[in-house]
Sequence to fold (378 residues):
Amino acid sequence: MNPIKKLIINAAHSRLLRWLCRNWSWALLLVLVLVIRLFASNAARVEFYYSRTIYPIISGVFRGGLDWLPLSLGDVLYGLFVIYGISKIISLLKRVIAGSFPASHWKLVFRKVILFFLVVYVLFNLLWGLNYNRLGIGSQLDLSPTVVKREEIDILTVRLLNQANHYSSLVDASARELFHQKEKLFNTAQLEVQQAATRYPFLQANLGAVKPSLYSYLGNYLGFQGYYNPFTGEGQVNTTIPVFLRPFVATHEIAHQLGYAKESEANFVGFLICKEAKEPLFRYAAYLDMYLYAHGILYQVDSIRANQVKLQRSTQVQADILALKNFYLHYQTPIEELVMQGYDYFLQANEQPQGKQSYSQVLRWLMAWVRKEGWEAL
Fold:
């Protein structure tokens, strides 16, 4: 080899080695990011090695370790992080305004921000996020969701409404009042999951750590009914939303805990759980929620037919839908639109190109299931 070329290569290797020694945390994080992306590129590999092997252990440890805690540790940590972040930003702005923050320090701030996001990215994926890349419910039930035809969405909407009408008549005021009790709601949700697991064994798990969100009222202004915290394994439910929605939201968050990361799959798993439920309010919640999705799609393709179907709502279903509409109008703010836009980008970045519309993609799973099992299964 040419001596000069050899010298250059040796020098490059030496500089790289020194950089790795000085920046070992960066090197480790970048390697982990690369490994995660390579691992996530194969859905079958993620399904077998992570979602069915590693993740249940991680999730079980979180649920078992935090189930005893009555409040959401994840909410507390998020709150502390927001307070810390705001205080650091204020401190930085004060220094900038006072002229005591050298321009050369911006490079250090930028490095810290990037390092923080790399750490969050790695932890997010290792603790839960890799489930976005699994085979999921389609593999477990042998379903292949495709576009729902106009005729199918019509029939589906009517059948879902018929079921919602039926179960609304079985849920009296006392039953609704009973599920205003948070402990009753969460305990029943977990029992219903165990009941559904007798038919769908892949839902079997030691459950726990489903809790009311400390930020439920704030959530009304930000537009969320519940959320899953991947860093603590807790499922948070907004317990200020109308009671007839809470069972479906609770089972949706449990589905996230079970490793169904995509919103459409969590919705479908929540439906399967509630459909098997002994409690009529759980069945009503699922059918009403699915009906609202289906009716919205039907309205987009045939508004005249959608308005005809709307006339078939029972008095109770119509009253609940009106109550739901008024509830969201009461809390509607420009901030919600901004938050939902950010959430839309988050979903798109995590294998859900439809963004917020991913929730309504549950109808593809539902229709694929109906094609396989028959309309009577609905």
Q: What stands out?
A: Residues 137-377 form one domain. The chain has two domains: 1-41, 137-377.
